[in-house]
Amino acid sequence: MSSIRYRRAQAEAERAARWAGALTRLSLILISFLLNGDFHPDLLPGGEGSNFQQYLGLTLWVTIIVATLYLPPLRQMEGSFGIYANWAFYTIAIASAAWSANVESSMMKSAAMLIVLAGAWRLTLTFPWEELLACVQHGLFSICLFSTLMAIFVPSIGVMSDYLHAGQWSGLFASKQTLGFCSDMLLYLSTFRLMNDRRNRYSWIGVALAILCLIGSGSRGSGVLAVAAVLATYAMRKWRALGCILAFVPFILTLIGALLISYLLYTQNRFVVIGGAWLDFTQRTYIWQHALRFFWDAPWFGFGVNGFWTQRNVKDLFLERYQWFLDNYHSGYIAILMETGLVGYILFAIAGLCFALRMNRLVRGRALPERQTSFAIIFACLLYIIDFTETYFMRSTNLRTTMLAIVTALAFSRPLLPSPCRGAGDLDQRRKVPPLRLRRGLASASEWM
């Protein structure tokens, strides 16, 4: 009798896991479609300023959190200094709403950030890696497909008409830059998957569609970054040592960001002088300098998430000086400094160093499949480069921010030995994973990362 009950319970658990897996896949595809940037106002129920995408996206993340409770764990988080540094940074960011000048707005962003981070980490620990990438690819593919159709058949929405970007595609989005970023991510993901299966027709179509959208949106920078990411991934498979070097790029970029901020604070310039040339990066340095003028008002813990640009005096002063306004730092590094202060920036830098040491350990010890380590390193490098002129680090729901949390969780977790019901073949495969090894000076430092 007990064996019958056991088999019945096991069958019910397997059925629940199948439904949970299907629901998680669907939710992740929709998230990858919805949470990349603001859609064109004419496509949103509430028009311009609507939070429809964010609310629907958060509902999907809650769905994923609940659904993954019915999935068997595949990975387990390892207690280490590196993971504690990441938790400390995100804790500061989420808690910063408490000292924000605009508590209501900051609390909403903090709550959204907490939900998305919890969902991303649950997803990493319970969902197969290859399926995760496939779902993200499906969402981005849908974006580029519908954006192409919109640009061709509904140009009043899909094509920009302002004097700066007239004739360039924006597709489903309010800005052509967002379509460019989605296209470069689709190009990288599709090419990444083709490296293992060149007969994958879907990925070949994805590459063609991404290139078409990159050309239509005029996003040359995004295209160059995507091609560089593909070449770096290919090179990492040939030379493992390259992965160990590239793992330190995010940390180095964080230090360069700190130097740039120090330069702007010291000189009070609205531009960067390089070789006698005055660079303002399409007036982004105006935004940076305006924000940094207020740095000493809250140097240690910052103004809180969503607590700086929402201040009336900050906005009015910028409008008075430049006659235009964007509530966006256009630099992820300055966003971290202004919203979490020096304490947050230092924790962010420490987390980046721990990530580098951890990835070195994984690459040298072959403790993760090569595809996973290469994707984690290259994606982190891409996001850290992009955040010099865009703001993704402190976004609460954006897909790129979520993917950074996912690769971080991947780096600081380890595969679990499967339960007997998953099959002896899987158990033998997991037991063949070699132990982590390091040589020379990095060994002692990375043991506790």
Short structural description:
By secondary structure, the protein is mainly alpha-helical.
What sort of overall outline do the alpha carbons produce when their principal axes are compared? Answer: globular
- The total of helices stands at 18
Distance between the termini: 49 Å
- Number of domains as seen in the coordinates: 1
Can you give the mean pLDDT? Answer: 87
Radius of gyration from the alpha-carbon trace, in angstroms? 23 Å
Low-confidence stretches: 419-444
What is the total tally of β strands? 4
Q: Could you estimate the helical fraction of the residues in percent?
A: 55-70%
- Taken in chain order, the helices and strands follow as HHEHHHHHHHHHEEHHHHHEHH
Characterize the biggest β-sheet: 2 strands, antiparallel
Strand content: under 5%
State the strand order across the main sheet: 1-4
Characterise the protein shown here.
With 449 residues, this protein is an all-alpha fold. It has one domain (2-255, 329-446). The protein has helices spanning 2-34, 52-67, 81-95, 103-126, 129-153, 155-158, 176-194, 201-217, 220-238, 240-246, 249-267, 284-292, 312-322, 332-365, 370-386, 399-411, 424-431, 442-446, and strands at residues 75-77, 272-274, 277-279, 413-415. A two-stranded antiparallel sheet has the order 1-4. A two-stranded antiparallel sheet has the order 2-3. It starts with a helix and ends with a helix.
